[in-house]
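job 3f2a | input accepted
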Amino acid sequence: MADGTKGKGTMVQAVVDDDGAGAPIDPLTAQKKREGTITPMSQASQNGYLTIEDIAKAPDTVTEELDVPEWGGRLVIRSLTKGQQQDARRKSMREGEISTDLLEMHVFITGVVEPAMTEEHFGMLRQKSFGVVEGITRKIMKVSGMDQASIAKAQASFPSGQ
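job 3f2a | predicted structure (162 res):
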């Protein structure tokens, strides 16, 4: 599917927590619980505080298939880690400024897993549809939390001054 989701059906808005307390959880957490990809918290974090071990073990990156009907197939994309995002930004610096063209290229070639992409491949993509290449880049940015909506949501979750 064009948005990278698999299957059909309705999105779960909220589900009951496994402990029966009735606490709503977000759809992504519900999916991870169903798939068994949520790592149980350590004893130290049972009080609600994460340990470094909890953070290191948490599966917080995404890999998904993305249908590209304009090209007659699909790609596998992934969310970028913080290190990959920083590397892309650093590689995109020119004369003290970030080149948006280079940043888009680095996000694209880092975010597309299958087929593996290089800078040379991205040069070829300059001859392809802007809308298709831009759509793929935006999807990578979205799953990486780099799109405007994700940034606004993250900023809203942290009160000013924190």
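job 3f2a | Strands lie at 15-16, 24-25, 63-68, 73-78, 93-94, 97-98, 112-114.
job 3f2a | closed
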